[in-house]
Every structure is written in structure tokens, then in C-alpha cells.
Task: inverse folding
């Protein structure tokens, strides 16, 4: 059949943008850690581009989007991408080919577990990380994608998540918190961030890619695509400036790192709501994102949790908050395929969103904690004290980022 050229072209670009976010995350995290661990944290993101792709095309896509089995998992329809033809349309939108939908969703799978790595920076053996990456995709991300986007029990219940507040950010953020608790603190905290310009480059790539992440989640070109695009920028901008103002009030000076962190918090928080809320709601969401994420980071610091790169405070809390705000501000005047939130009389919808994000956050947290315990019994999970002092770039890879 003839596909819609405009929507297909847009989705190809959106897929490329989401792919770019993983290298963006690598630079973002790479700049935040010390000089001796730069390559290690970057490789933990980059390796997901290769390994997650292999898992996705062999078993992941069918687990996520195969025929529904009791609301829990997808069937074996598309194992090794079997039964996928070049001209096959995507059932959810026959304007685009199925193979394009497979590629687009694959990029989400690539970046989600990479987000978690910021929580155990400087501490985890690369071999153990590869086992964790595999297990987390198979038992958390692929099933979770089916529950919310693949026709699983949460989708059947009426839960909405436009681009991944539940599926991506809350799940990864609370998994990161579990990793912080299980693995424990670093023994040698290297001075960091070692390169704020690298963090800025990473933020720019993430912000740029997020347009494909959010606007592309409409899976076609229409007015919802446009509002999701603009809402993404509005929330990021309001959040970045809000964090900057907080830094001025608290520290007496504007902080570049605060601005960059605020932007990412705003992007994470608008993600579940981007195609369901008004432009004015996106402004409120952006401001709220920075205020709440800033408090979360402060709370984490006061408790002494070594979430090295604030994955929980920014992504976990941001995604969690965004789902609650979706439950409040969603309106069918923006998206007829959405729902009305609490502000528009949708108390039941708000309750479903809240219950879903709480359930998924707990599930991701518990699985991660247990998985790390089991991995530690199979292989060495944490680097030795000597290796940590040396730096993981040299001890794990035999390479260094800087002479």
C-alpha cells in the first residue's frame, strides 16, 4: 500500500532524533563524572545502542507489541521480526510502515536503561552492567511497554502515557534509586563535574532529540504533533529558568549546571503529558518540575544517598510528577483521543494515572534491587577499592579519556 509521505518522513526524522538522545546522554553523564571515569559512563550509554538493538529485534519487539497474552506480555508473533513484511502498515496508524514503528520504539528501549547508569557511576563492573542491562530490558522495560503501549492491562484500564513518563522516566528513576541503596556509596568521590561544557553539549543533544521523543509519539503529523512539540520546549524553558532563579536565591549567583539540570527536569516531566495538555498547562508543568525536582535533589543530599548524577531526583521524580500532572491537566480539547483530567472533571482518570505510576515505580524498584542481589552472586558487581581509586576507565577498559 502507499504510505503517507509526510508522516513517514517525519517519523524517520523523529526516530533519528531519539537515537541521538543516547549519545547526548553519554555526553551529559560523561561531563558530570570525574576525569577517570568518563569513558566508562559514556560506554554504558553507547553499548546500549548495540546490545539493546539486538535484544529488541530478536525478542523485545514481540514481547512489547505481539498479541496480548492475559494483559501481561506480547505473544511470539514477531519473534526475530518474523511475519514483518516491507509493505506491512503499522496497525495503530496505517499511514506509516510497521518497520518504521519498530525502529522508533527501539530507540526508546535503547535510552531507558542507559538513564539508570548515572546512579551507580564510578562503582559497577562493566560485565555486571551488561547482565543488568539484559535482565532489566527483559523483565522490566519490554513487559512495561506492553502494559502501557502494547495493549496490556494498564492500557485496557485506560492509563495514558504520551511519550514515556511511566514507561521511561519513572521506571528508570526508581530503578536508579534501588541501585543507589543496594550498591552503596562511592569510597572515592572524584572532583566533578569535570566538564560543564560537555554537560551543556549533552543537554543540547537531549533537548533537540526530545522533540522527536515527544512530538514523534503522535506517530503522524497533525495538530497534536505540533502542540506536543511546542509543549516540550515550553516546559523545558520554564523549568530551566525556574532552576536558575532558585540558584540565584539560594547561592547568590546563577549556575550554568542548574540551568542545564532544570531543562532536563522540565523535559522529563512534560513527557507523559506533551500531547494531552494545553500550552498554558505546559508552563505550569515546567515551573513545577524544577521546584519539585530541586527539592528532591536537596532531600537526597540531606539523606546522604549517593545518586551520583541525580537520576532519581530529575528523571524518577520528574516522570512521576509528570504523570500526576497529566492526571490533573489533560483535556480532550487538546487531544480527542486523550482524557479529561481532574481539572476537567476526570477524577477517575487522575486516580488511574496515580495508581499506575505508583505501581510501576514500586515494581521497577523491587526488581532492580533483587536483580542486583542475584547478579552479585553470579559475578563481581562492584569494583574493588583499588580499582575505584584508579578509575574505571583504566581498570575496566585499559583506556583513558585524557592524558
Result:
Amino acid at each position: 500500500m502507499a504510505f503517507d509521505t509526510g508522516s513517514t518522513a517525519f517519523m524517520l526524522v523523529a526516530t533519528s532524533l531519539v537515537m541521538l538522545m543516547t549519545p547526548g546522554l553519554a555526553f551529559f553523564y560523561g561531563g558530570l563524572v570525574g576525569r577517570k571515569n568518563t569513558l566508562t559512563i559514556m560506554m554504558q550509554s553507547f553499548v546500549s545502542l548495540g546490545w539493546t538493538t539486538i535484544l529488541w529485534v530478536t525478542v523485545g519487539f514481540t514481547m512489547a507489541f505481539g498479541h496480548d497474552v492475559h494483559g501481561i506480555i506480547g505473544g511470539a508473533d514477531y519473534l526475530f521480526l518474523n511475519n514483518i513484511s516491507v509493505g506491512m502498515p503499522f496497525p495503530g496508524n496505517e499511514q506509516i510502515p510497521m518497520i518504521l514503528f519498530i525502529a522508533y520504539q527501539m530507540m526508546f528501549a535503547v535510552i531507558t536503561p542507559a538513564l539508570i547508569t548515572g546512579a551507580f557511576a564510578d562503582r559497577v563492573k562493566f560485565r555486571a552492567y551488561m547482565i543488568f542491562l539484559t535482565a532489566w530490558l527483559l523483565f522490566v522495560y519490554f513487559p512495561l511497554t506492553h502494559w502501557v503501549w502494547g495493549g496490556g492491562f494498564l492500557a485496557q484500564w485506560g492509563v495514558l502515557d504520551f511519550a514515556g513518563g511511566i514507561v521511561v522516566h519513572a521506571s528508570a528513576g526508581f530503578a536508579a534509586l534501588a541501585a543507589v541503596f543496594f550498591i552503596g556509596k562511592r569510597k572515592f568521590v572524584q572532583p566533578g563535574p569535570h566538564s560543564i561544557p560537555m554537560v551543556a553539549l549533552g543537554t543540547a543533544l537531549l533537548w533537540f532529540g526530545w522533540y522527536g521523543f515527544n512530538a514523534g509519539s503522535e506517530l503522524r503529523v497533525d495538530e497534536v504533533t505540533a502542540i506536543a512539540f511546542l509543549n516540550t520546549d515550553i516546559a523545558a524553558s520554564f523549568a530551566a529558568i525556574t532552576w536558575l532563579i532558585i540558584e540565584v536565591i539560594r547561592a547568590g549567583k546563577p549556575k550554568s549546571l542548574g540551568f542545564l539540570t532544570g531543562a532536563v527536569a522540565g523535559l522529563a516531566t512534560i513527557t507523559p503529558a506533551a500531547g494531552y495538555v494545553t500550552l498554558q498547562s505546559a508552563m505550569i508543568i515546567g515551573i513545577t518540575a524544577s521546584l519539585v525536582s530541586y527539592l528532591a535533589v536537596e532531600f537526597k543530599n540531606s539523606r546522604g544517598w549517593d545518586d551520583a548524577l541525580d537520576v532519581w531526583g530529575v528523571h524518577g521524580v520528574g516522570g512521576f510528577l509528570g504523570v500526576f500532572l497529566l492526571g490533573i491537566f489533560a483535556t480532550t480539547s487538546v487531544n480527542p483521543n486523550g482524557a479529561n483530567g481532574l481539572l476537567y472533571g476526570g477524577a477517575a482518570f487522575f486516580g488511574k494515572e496515580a495508581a499506575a505510576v505508583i505501581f510501576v515505580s514500586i515494581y521497577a524498584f523491587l526488581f532492580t534491587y533483587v536483580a542486583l542481589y542475584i547478579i552479585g552472586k553470579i559475578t563481581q558487581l562492584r569494583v574493588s577499592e583499588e580499582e575505584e581509586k584508579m578509575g574505571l576507565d583504566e581498570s575496566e577498559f585499559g583506556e583513558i579519556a585524557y592524558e
